[in-house]
Amino acid sequence: MQSNQPSMEKPLILVTNDDSLKAPGIRALIDILRPLGKVVVVAPDRPQSGTAHAVTIAHMLRIDLVYRETDYEEYACNGTPADCVKMAYKIVMGRRPDFIFSGINHGTNSSINIFYSGTMAAVLEGALTGVPAVGFSLNNYSLNADFNPSRKYVREIAEKTIANGLPKGICLNVNIPDVPTSMIKGIRVCRQAEGTWQEDFDEREDPNGRKYYWMKGVYVNNGNGEDTDQWALENNYVAIVPVQPDLTAVQAIEPLQHWF
Amino acid sequence: MQSNQPSMEKPLILVTNDDSLKAPGIRALIDILRPLGKVVVVAPDRPQSGTAHAVTIAHMLRIDLVYRETDYEEYACNGTPADCVKMAYKIVMGRRPDFIFSGINHGTNSSINIFYSGTMAAVLEGALTGVPAVGFSLNNYSLNADFNPSRKYVREIAEKTIANGLPKGICLNVNIPDVPTSMIKGIRVCRQAEGTWQEDFDEREDPNGRKYYWMKGVYVNNGNGEDTDQWALENNYVAIVPVQPDLTAVQAIEPLQHWF
């Protein structure tokens, strides 16, 4: 299942997402990226929203070629987005790609939503393995979301990433407002907003009278400034947060050393 | 299913993990924590290793009381560790607990393993919701791992966390070497080591001749210094990394602003 090596001129681009191969968001992203390189799509065969950075170790994985033409291949995987990246590297490409682009997600991954996001886990896999990677998300959860207004910005950011590369170990979390292109005010490079999910559950009863629950919940922003992705998104800017896979709270190291 | 409110003196402690309610690691942790407060355990009903910060939104959730006595309750949940925390808050306790302790994990969560860890996702849920939280992991993946040598350190760190609290939004990732207590040299507060997983898969064929794969892979440390958790662990120190749920690469914001 080894792919052909790319020609010298064309970068090898891995495309994935968490909404599955059939989601309109990934079809829009593929369409934008195909002129920019050799595109290999390895995406989940079913929706994997909210799977975060899960990897499949308790079950077996499958991967199937579903379509191939010149400089383009498409594979369906029964795993998570992180599984898709690892399988793409090892099983499909036999090497790490030049770039990873993930999305376009149906729904925002701004602020702390990055922690729950399968789309962004695939992007973090890039950062963890030295591959420049960008995740795109549209602030519209509907399967019928219109991705056309975001195309101009997705293309611009993809082109600049391919032209410039990214600093080592850094990936990008791009969130796009769900408004007509003419209303998008531009691009802002931001920090991740502070926020929280107010947990909530819908309690129901099955026909045997046993309770079960559906997870709900509401995102609560902590209103923390015009330099955040949440502010940018709410004010019709495309928000880019440079992301690194390091959770160390450096400022807390020294105070905690006094404990011991 | 509302718990009694705790008495003024005893903190309300939520205990969870990703190896399931039956794992020896969580039994050791419960045993250490029960003298320190009112303990409510909400843990997965089956192993959830590698589920990371996944939340269950495409399936329904269940939670069942399995044991109760004075100042102690135990619930099994069919979801992930992050689900367990959210259900504990909303369904079991009707409020956020005073502390969350997660583990003791069978296997290390040092370095970038934090991104794949269900144990640490539960702890990050604490940080995301303002609850001081600590995750404990033993550097031994076996179900038969011996947790006795680690007890002294788990107790000390839990007691200090309960006495001192943690800085707002900060949680702790504690990794413990798998050696006799007498060989543990002490505690070091560290930064998260840089590393990567070298992806690998075991390829097999089902009886119909169709290929399937088991995920394997080897952790590769990037050998980056005596101030890292990986170094501490390998040199028989208990490693504590203060963790914050913010992935912003602050140093990359300004350079990226020149792109647009």
Draw up the topology in text.
The structure is a homodimer of 260-residue chains.
Chain A: E1 12-16, H1 24-33, E2 38-44, E3 63-69, E4 72-77, H2 81-93, E5 99-106, H3 118-128, E6 133-138, H4 151-164, E7 171-176, E8 186-189, E9 195-198, E10 201-205, E11 211-215, E12 218-221, H5 229-234, E13 237-243, H6 253-257
Parallel strand pairs in A: 1-2, 1-5, 2-4, 5-6, 6-7, 8-13
Antiparallel strand pairs in A: 3-4, 7-13, 9-12, 10-11
Question: Your description of this structure?
Answer:
2 copies of one chain form a homodimer. Chain A is α/β, with parallel strands linked by helices and 260 residues long. In chain A, helix 1 crosses helix 4 and helix 2 crosses helix 3. In chain A, the strands form 3 sheets. In chain A, strands 3-4-2-1-5-6-7-13-8 form a 9-stranded mixed β-sheet, sandwiched between helices. In chain A, strands 9-12 form a two-stranded antiparallel ribbon. The first copy, chain A, has a single domain, classed as Survival protein SurE-like phosphatase/nucleotidase (Stationary-phase Survival Protein Sure Homolog, Chain: A), CATH 3.40.1210.10. At the A-B interface, helix 2, helix 3, strand 8, strand 10 and strand 11 of A face helix 2, helix 3, strand 8, strand 10 and strand 11 of B.
**Biggest interface, residues from each chain:** A-B, 77 and 77 residues
Low-confidence stretches of chain A: none
**Number of discrete domains of chain A:** 1
Shape of chain A from CA axes? Answer: globular
CATH architecture of chain A: 3-Layer(aba) Sandwich
Ends of chain A: how far apart? 54 Å
Structural class of chain A: alpha/beta
Question: How many H/I helical runs of chain A?
Answer: 6
- What about the largest sheet of chain A? 9 strands, mixed
Number of strands of chain A: 13
